[in-house]
């Protein structure tokens, strides 16, 4: 099962917003070890240095409504872009298929046109029988083949 980029993006945004919301009430601790390195963590260290441990407080006034609105807006935007990409891909596939069909039709029409150019044309039926074409039918075949060549051979 393929996971699309938009699903991953949407899931990532939702997960990130949950993590932010869940981490808001937690306390963060700051301390300096014996070697002078500054550390941050959610738990106090096992050994306390001379400088001690500082508790960092931060505001938990998170406007969840605006965060949810921003998340919905971003999700909607991502979904629109995903739909646009799907449509463009489908259109490209359809165009490619049509070009392939046109190429086959063009080759057949060119072959027919070349056959109709001779005054005494014999025509092979689908069942394999061969018959001579009257002049009117030959001229009609020329016009029809020229029209097809003009319409589909510009790929």
What is this entry, summarized?
By secondary structure, the chain is of the alpha+beta class.
Describe how the helices and strands are arranged.
Elements (H helix, E strand, L loop, with lengths): L4 H19 L4 E5 L5 E4 L11 E4 L7 H53 L5 E3 L5 E3 L2 H18 L3
Antiparallel strand pairs: 1-2, 1-3, 4-5
What does this structure look like?
The chain is built from 3 helices and 5 strands; from the N terminus they run H-E-E-E-H-E-E-H. Strand 1 and strand 2 form a beta hairpin. The two termini are 36 Å apart. It is α+β, with helices and mostly antiparallel strands and 155 residues long. The strands form 2 sheets. The chain has a 3-stranded antiparallel beta sheet, with no helix packed on it. The model has no long low-confidence stretch (mean pLDDT 78). The relative contact order is 0.09. The longest helix is centred in the middle third of the chain and has 53 residues. It has one domain.
Keywords:
3 helices; single chain; 155 residues; alpha+beta; two-stranded antiparallel ribbon
Mean pLDDT: 78
Report the sheet-strand fraction: 5-15%
- Please estimate the helix content: 55-70%
Output the structural class. alpha+beta
Spatial strand arrangement across the major sheet: 2-1-3
How are helices and strands ordered from N to C? HEEEHEEH
Number of helical segments?
Answer: 3
Taking all Cα atoms into account, the compactness measure Rg is: 37 Å
Strand segment count: 5
């Amino acid at each position: 099962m393929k996971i699309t980029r938009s699903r991953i993006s949407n899931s990532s945004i939702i997960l990130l917003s949950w993590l932010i919301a869940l981490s808001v009430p937690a306390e963060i601790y700051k301390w300096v070890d014996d070697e002078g390195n500054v550390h941050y963590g959610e738990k106090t260290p096992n050994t306390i240095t001379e400088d001690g441990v500082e508790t960092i407080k931060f505001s938990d006034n998170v406007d969840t409504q605006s965060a949810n609105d921003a998340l919905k807006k971003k999700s909607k935007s991502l979904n629109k872009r995903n739909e646009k990409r799907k449509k463009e891909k489908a259109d490209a596939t359809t165009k490619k298929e049509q070009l392939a069909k046109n190429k086959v039709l063009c080759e057949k029409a060119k072959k027919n046109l070349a056959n109709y150019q001779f005054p005494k044309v014999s025509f092979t039926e689908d069942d394999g029988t061969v018959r001579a074409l009257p002049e009117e039918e030959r001229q009609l075949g020329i016009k029809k083949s020229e029209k097809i060549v003009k319409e589909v051979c510009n790929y």
